[in-house]
Amino acid sequence: MARRALHGLPAVIGGTPLIELQHLVPEFRSRLLVKTERFNPGGSIKDRTALAMLLGAIESGDLDPERSVVIESSSGNLGVGLAQICRYFGLRFICVVDAKTTSRNLELLRAYQAEVEVVSRPDEESGEFLPARLRRVRELLAAIPHAYWPNQYANPNNPRAHQQTMREIAQALEDRVDYLFASVGTFGTLRGCAEYIRTHRLGTRIIGVDAVGSVIFDQPPAPRLLPGHGASIRPPLTDASLVDEVVHVSDLEAVVGCRRLLRREAVLAGGSSGAVTAALLGYRDRIPAGSTCVLIYPDGGDRYLDTIFNDAWVTEKFGEVAHLWKDALPPAAATPAAGAQPVG
Ligand SMILES: Cc1ncc(COP(=O)(O)O)c(C=O)c1O
Questions:
Q1: Whose CA is nearest to atom 12 of ligand 1?
Q2: CB under 8 Å, gap of 24 or more: what pairs does 319-326 form?
Q3: Is it the case that residue 261 has pLDDT exceeding 80?
Q4: Residues 10-15: what's their mean pLDDT?
Q5: pLDDT range class, residue 42, cuts 50, 70, 90
Q6: Which of 53, 114, 118, 51 is nearest to 81 (CA)?
Q7: Is 77 in the pocket of ligand 1 (CB under 6 A)?
Q8: 40 lines ligand 1 (CB under 6 A)
């Protein structure tokens, strides 16, 4: 997509800070940097995706800024990102969410003047909300004239947006990126970064971070508590050959990753950031000294104050686990996330 000159709010999407972590793994003899996407104006990496998909659709003529209605299924960050960009362009936006969407996200969507459709019952066959939300999107598309569905799960402008994410990382580090840890949901972030890495022959080893219970890499489905990374349906953008290795991280490991990050680095990061942190901790002994490692942190912990950063919620879900982030680091081999599985 030819990038046109941006003004106003869209002009400040991207260009997020790369923070060097110094205390997370004291004995680590490599550089560790995190790309903090919470500093986008809508609070997550999905600002990039939302902007790229809508600009792409305007440029291709699929979306008419005068009369189109944007409809998307999202329970979180993409919905907020789209609501923000739709408001900027003056577009009507209907966001299909489900009963698991947090009240904070509903408030945010409504503050941006999105119309919110709540799907209250999961799909009968799978027990998951995603198929039920997608069914509702299709019904709305059929019923509303000039409706446009960005469909982040299959839209090529989703990964394309993240070629820019990787360009920013590579340029800041003068193309020296030995390891990239990125979580997977739609596969947009990882795919776009991998495409940039391949095109520019950076030689970066790509570690995909998925949730235990996600089906993206053909693991058996199981209930998951944290939104963001992982999926109950394999996204069409998935390309396992782009990933050198994949690490599956449990909800508890992701929570411990978030809490440890906050304790050691004062970085308030979201669940998938905790997951990539847990993956790095499990993998760290395999990284040769002197390497440069980058972790992508898709959003901030302020969206998880009722869950990951709420002691009562953590105790209810996992029991008394506070010692896991207050103690010394576990040996890498002892963390379940160390069971990295080669893919492809
Ligand atoms: C917090 C968070 N982490 C990770 C992801 C996964 O990113 P992607 O969809 O680009 O694979 C998402 C996607 O919505 C997200 O919101």
A1: 228
A2: 321/252, 321/255, 321/256, 324/252, 324/256, 324/259, 325/256, 325/259, 325/260, 325/263, 326/263
A3: yes
A4: 97
A5: very high
A6: 51
A7: yes
A8: no
Question: With bands split at pLDDT 50, 70 and 90, how would you rate the model's confidence at 101?
Answer: confident
Cα–Cα nearest to 230, from 245, 244, 209, 246: 209
Alpha-carbon span 49 to 155, nearest angstrom: 10
Does the CA dihedral 41-43-47-50 come out positive or negative?
negative
Provide the token pair at 195.
């495409």
This model's pTM is above 0.90: yes
pLDDT 10s digits, 215-241: 999 999 999 999 899 998 899 999 999
Closest by alpha carbon to 178, among 282, 280, 49, 249?
A: 280
Spacing, Cα 44 to ligand 1 middle (Å)? 9
Span from the CA of 231 to the centroid of ligand 1 (angstroms)? 10
Q: How far is the CA of 167 from the centre of ligand 1 (A)?
A: 18
Q: What are phi and psi of 73, to 5 degrees?
A: -100, 120
